[in-house]
UniProtKB/TrEMBL annotation:
Keyword Flavoprotein listed: yes
EC number: 1.5.99.12
Protein name as annotated: cytokinin dehydrogenase
Reaction equation(s) it catalyzes: N(6)-dimethylallyladenine + A + H2O = 3-methyl-2-butenal + adenine + AH2
Xref: PANTHER family: CYTOKININ DEHYDROGENASE 6, GULONOLACTONE OXIDASE
Cofactors required: FAD
Gene3D superfamilies in the cross-refs: FAD-linked oxidases, C-terminal domain, Uridine Diphospho-n-acetylenolpyruvylglucosamine Reductase, domain 2
Pfam families named among the record's database cross-references: Cytokin-bind
Membership in a protein family: Belongs to the oxygen-dependent FAD-linked oxidoreductase family.
Length: 459
């Protein structure tokens, strides 16, 4: 028999906002492979008329208790990791993995065959889920086949309210071994967005494009020197970032060592089309794996200081292209005073890169911006780095979006009523309800999303 642990805890605001939250009284299945089959366990022991609910918990972040099940069962998805992955090279290469496998393990195994997935999350020490990049679309687009395939369009990094995906195969592409990693700064938001939109539409382009907002950061370029080399050291040393709102564009080109001259020329040509501050051009050359696993280095440092497993009150917004300047003027000009609590991502995405069969809701424009406030709160702090301050700041941003009619859609939102969820989905609410009714009519799965109530009929 496997381990079935019963715990009890209080639901505190600090816990709700972290990825380590727990709900009062819930069961935790440490190894579902070693216990009775889950359907038999759920219906045989508790019965269809019980209050039992089931949630899946991966090795990752969960906002506002979304991976929890009040008085129910939480499944440790990492226990679904098989003995080994199966990489299938060939004309259309792919890899078979379990739903509990980590992206970092998939990377290392794939690289043995000179292959890698086409799209990545920024952080690889997560169970298989999804992420996005401007070039190869969301990670869900890499899904070739999954158990419960009729549902496979619904859950990836949106809402797993229909089923728990236990195995998947993911398409691959040939992997390069080296990466030219580039950073530049802008002081003009219009130039920053114009260049990003140009890059995501260009034919010969960078392999990775991501933007950041940096507000009132002291010694910014000096901090970059630990990992990057300035193109013009003298000019870079004279650049002042204190008290300024700046916008960083991060770019990469992937290559093999025999193509170094060609790749340098391509980068030179691409950069010549951009309007960044010339003294802020920094470059680095790293291995492909080192670049992809770049966040892990920060994790190690933060863990050593006890600052990794802390509240993360993240806010992820999808902003229509036509409203991004109004949004930036108020949020980056008035609401935020610094960016010391965590990175703020800003980059455009082509709507055509997203599959409309997934359950995510997108703005009604062909191009929209992902704006992600990835804050970390210092436990017990009552200052600007404390949880209450960050949550209040998030509410101010959302209130502004509503008052200014920005047309924002939240990515992985937290709502507490079905009416709010219905407003979020808009005209797609009916199909969302139909899928739930077809595949989980008793509303057993994913109660932490607070979209559907257990034992309430879905018409």
């Amino acid at each position: 028999m496997g381990t079935l642990v019963l715990t009890k805890s209080t639901m505190q605001p600090e816990i709700l906002a972290t990825g380590t939250d727990t709900s009062p009284w819930r069961f935790y299945i440490q190894n579902p492979f070693l216990i009775l089959p889950l359907p038999l366990t759920m219906f045989g022991k508790w019965g269809p008329g019980s209050e039992l609910t089931v949630a899946a918990r991966g090795h990752g972040h969960s906002l506002q208790g979304q991976a929890q099940a009040h008085r129910g069962v939480v499944i440790n998805m990492e226990s679904f990791r098989g003995p080994q992955m199966q990489v299938h090279p060939g004309k259309n290469p792919y890899v078979d993995v379990s739903g509990g496998e980590l992206w970092i393990n998939i990377l290392h195994e794939s690289m043995k065959y000179g292959l890698a997935p086409k799209s990545w999350t920024d952080y690889l020490h997560l169970t298989v889920g999804a992420g996005s990049c401007y070039r190869e679309r969301r990670c869900a687009k890499l899904l070739r086949e999954a158990e419960c395939r009729p549902l496979s369009w619904c859950p990836w990094r949106t809402w797993s309210v229909w089923h728990n995906n236990t195995s998947t195969n993911i398409s691959r592409a040939s992997a390069q071994k080296l990466v030219k990693w580039i950073r530049v700064l802008y002081s003009d938001f219009s130039a920053f967005t114009r260049d990003q939109e140009h890059l995501i539409s260009a034919e010969n382009r960078f392999d990775y494009v991501e933007g950041f907002v940096i507000i009132n950061r002291t010694g910014l370029l000096n901090n970059w020197r630990s990992s990057f080399n300035p193109e013009d050291p003298v000019q870079a040393s004279q650049f002042e970032s204190d008290g300024r709102t700046l916008f960083c564009l991060e770019l990469t080109k992937h290559f093999n060592s025999d193509k170094i001259d060609m790749i340098n020329k391509e980068i030179e040509n691409l950069l010549s089309e951009l309007s960044y501050i010339s003294s802020t051009l920094f470059m680095s050359e790293v291995s492909y794996i080192e670049f992809l696993d770049r966040v892990h280095g920060s994790e190690v440092k933060l863990r050593s200081k006890g600052l990794w497993e802390v509240p993360h009150p993240w806010l992820n917004l999808l902003i229509p292209r036509s409203k991004i300047h109004n949004f930036a003027q108020e949020v980056f000009g008035n609401i935020l005073t610094d960016t010391s609590n965590g990175p703020i991502l800003v980059y455009p995405v082509n709507k055509s890169k997203w599959d409309n069969r997934t359950s995510i809701v997108l703005p009604d424009e062909d191009v929209f911006y992902l704006v992600a406030f990835l804050s970390s709160a210092v436990p017990s702090s009552t200052g600007t780095d404390g949880l209450e301050h960050i949550l209040t700041q998030n509410r101010r941003i959302l209130d502004f979006c509503e008052a200014a009619e920005i047309g924002v859609k939240q990515y992985l939102p937290h709502y507490t009523t079905q009416k709010e969820w219905q407003a979020h989905f808009g005209p797609r609410w009916e199909i969302f309800m139909q899928r739930k009714s077809a595949y989980d009519p008793l509303a057993i799965l994913a109660p932490g999303q607070k979209i559907f109530q257990k034992a309430i009929s879905i018409l």
